[in-house]
Design goal:
The protein is of the alpha/beta class. It is built from 17 helices and twelve strands. The protein folds into two domains: 122 residues, 3-Layer(aba) Sandwich (Oxidized Rhodanese, domain 1), CATH 3.40.250; 244 residues.
């Protein structure tokens, strides 16, 4: 199998959207895959477990022999048929396993025996993951701008309005608050980092992010990137309460309901959305205290009844005190811990967007000059 073709672990494979076939077991794929990959395993979870035990007890040769017995006959034919069907749809697909070793080589060999030759990634999943993590670390060395402000100031929208914005909450599929859980399953830590790395491939220069805690839902920001965010200059968006209330009504009610209805239908979607919002509010018992929580729960229950009668704006009755009694005191305390000089600009949404664009253009121009000087110095050194 030494003549089977290889491709280097180049991140361009991801940025170009190349189709990838992951031949690892489903349990490995679920723990974290490369962006855009489809899981068509050589061995299922139980087969992998048995081969692993055999390897520990009797060594590599015995493990390979067991694998050949387990994945043979109709099982082997079904696996090869799945790969061939995928290659008919995506003829330029590339194969990978954990380290680019035996599993992807076997898949390549069986695919070739069926009439198609496709390469595998040198170093496999591990090499590509290392490259994605290195891209995140490299971005931490580039200029960063952090957008802060109270809840409902549309900070995420501001980041998304910029061509160099990195939506961390989008990567985590979580809005980073007690009410921030997305109806669809959030990615694990590895897939979160891969989503970050993939977006950063499009952002070679300065990056703008929203102010976040290190934990966004179940995901943690990589250490180097988090530390860079703490050092970075900041914008502070300030908007009036009624504006912010309309914004969180859109986020917590309108958009959430749209996703639930689309995914689960009217009846089940409504029940699941209500359950999520009720559970999210209940989690604040320690911070709100029993009396305030009970008051907000009564207002929330009334709002759901009004919503069913065609008045979704009724939710503002519990969202307004949620802002003023929970979110605002908490975030004001965090914002006030920052020295005034740490903020590049404090102002409304439009002015912060303008300053973010100006900062981005200045940083891009500065990096361009620095690159020009570096090229010139290299030429002088060679001369």
């Amino acid at each position: 199998m030494s003549d089977l073709p290889l491709v280097d672990p180049d991140l361009a494979l991801l940025s170009e959207g190349r189709h990838l076939i992951d031949v690892r077991a489903p349990v490995e794929f679920a723990q974290g895959a490369l962006p855009g990959a489809v899981n068509l395993p050589l061995m299922d979870n139980e087969e992998r477990r048995l081969v692993g035990i055999e390897y520990k007890q009797r060594g590599q040769a015995a493990a390979i022999a067991l694998g050949e017995r387990l994945v043979s006959g109709e099982v082997k034919a079904a696996r090869v048929a799945a790969w061939m069907a995928e290659l008919e749809r995506y003829p330029d697909a590339i194969v990978y396993c954990f380290r680019g070793g035996l599993r992807s080589q076997i898949a390549q060999q069986w695919i070739r025996e069926a009439g198609i030759t496709r390469p595998r990634i040198r170093g496999g999943w591990k090499a590509m993951r290392q490259a994605l993590c290195a891209r995140i670390d490299a971005a931490a060395e580039q200029p960063l701008l952090v957008v802060g402000g109270l809840t409902g100031c549309a900070k995420t929208d501001l980041v998304l309005a910029l061509d160099n914005g990195l939506d961390l909450e989008g990567c985590a599929r979580h809005k980073g608050s007690a009410f921030g859980r997305h109806p669809l399953q959030a990615p694990g830590q590895i897939d979160f980092e891969h989503a970050m790395g993939l977006r950063l491939l499009e952002l070679p220069g300065p990056v703008v992010v929203e102010d976040e805690s290190r934990h966004i839902g179940g995901a943690n920001l990589p250490q180097a990137f988090w530390e860079a965010m703490q050092r970075a200059p900041r914008l502070r968006v300030e908007m009036p309460l009624d504006w912010r209330l309309a914004q969180i009504h859109r986020d917590y009610i309108e958009e959430l309901w749209a996703v639930y209805r689309r995914q689960f239908g009217e009846w089940l979607g409504w029940a699941l959305m209500r359950k999520q919002l009720e559970e999210s509010l209940a989690k604040l018992r320690k911070r709100l205290g029993s009396a305030r929580l009970a008051r907000l729960q009564r207002l929330q229950a009334l709002a759901f009844r009004e919503h069913e009668r065609g008045n979704p704006q009724a939710h503002e009755a519990w969202l307004a005190p949620l802002l003023t009694e929970y979110y605002d005191p908490m975030y004001r305390h965090q914002l006030e811990k920052r020295a005034p000089g740490h903020f590049l600009h404090v102002g409304d949404w439009e002015s912060c967007l303008t300053v973010a664009r100006e900062w981005s253009n200045e940083q891009k121009a500065r990096l361009k000059v620095m690159c020009g000087h570096s090229v010139a110095e290299t030429g002088i050194a060679r001369g």
